[in-house]
């Protein structure tokens, strides 16, 4: 498929009632394994890519390094890839536009753009400022002739911003404004409670994306609540790191290979994965 066809497919997959389960990948190997498992689209995880390069999360990795990985992932799979571009690598709309230009050139079908400033004293961009940043992203997609999917992330719940009593209304206020600015869907990580999810689905006039991890309701249960798109963030990366830690500890303390044997992946299968 061409890039525009992938963008159109991604947009259709995440409509209300369709139900898109989107794994997040951090390198070509993880991307190919999830594609081989049958997923219709993939997302990148900024945290996972940052960890793989030796950085903490939160735009500490250089944009060029991040985009290099995204480009390699897009080139290695046939399914649409949506890229986590964090907060756009800069506060100004032009910073977001510049990031959009390079990720569009990398072949992505969509992006995640968050409203988190990285500043603990003022954790979220003002609504008007974030709206302008989303509009800049949409303009770059239009200039490229693409129906690129913009998934606008709202971090009110993930970072517990503001008073709990006003958090829902602030989330809804931002969601409506972001959709008007050019977003296609709204991403509210940090929410898995069914009652709250139903309220968000009912009150947000666009598809709702949430992030899950062990302990969350199953994907089919969440789709029944009306959630349109489910992603896993850095969870698979962290689980892989946990497995490597177990292998390392066993190898160092016991000198045995049980974990290696338990999760062995054949060299022949690995070679075929990248042909």
Automatic annotation (TrEMBL):
What top-level branch of life does the organism fall under?
Bacteria
For this UniProt record, the keywords arranged alphabetically read as follows: Lyase
One GO MF term, please?
lyase activity
- What name does the UniProt record give this protein? 2-methylisocitrate lyase
